[in-house]
Structure formats: structure tokens, C-alpha cells
Description:
Layout: H1 17-45, E1 58-65, E2 72-78, E3 87-88, E4 91-92, E5 94-96
Antiparallel strand pairs: 1-2, 1-5, 3-4
Amino acid sequence: MANGYRRGRYAELVPAVSTIIWVGFGIFFGYILWKSGIAMLRSMTMLPPEPPPTGELRKISRKYRCDVCGVEMKMTMAPDDDPPPPRHCLEDMIEVAPLYD
């Protein structure tokens, strides 16, 4: 060039340092995105675990309240994942939505 900033035979073929940095960041973030996408796809192909044998208690977390007297109880173990509500005061208890679980 005539103004003297770049000299040499291949001066116009050398990219600027900022371009090299941007390309490096792009390759790095592309690699991270690729790896996280592959990990998500692999997690969807894994089979769920087998259910426990019939009659074995499962861990659950359900809260119930009696409509008549207001007593509350928390059920932590049940023979299946969706147990029927317990009875209190000759009525079925209603399920209470958990606030912070």
C-alpha cells in the first residue's frame, strides 16, 4: 500500500486480530451448542426405569385436608403412584396443592 500501513507481499491476505478472535469465539460457542444438543438428544433416548414390583411401597409426596374438620395429613409412601384419597370424618379428603415443593 502506498500509505505505509501494510507492507509486504501478503499483507492484504492476513486477517485482522479481531476477526481471528470473533471466529474463535464462534467456533467455541458452536462447539458448546453442538455438545449440549447431542446431550439433550441422548437424554431423550434413554428408557425410563422399570416400575417397582407390585405391592412394594413407592415414595410419594401428597398433602390432604379434611373438608369437615380441617385436619391435614401428608402421605409419603403408597402402593402406587396415584393412590386414592384417604377418608376422614366419613368423607374423602381433598388434595392440597403444595406451595414450595
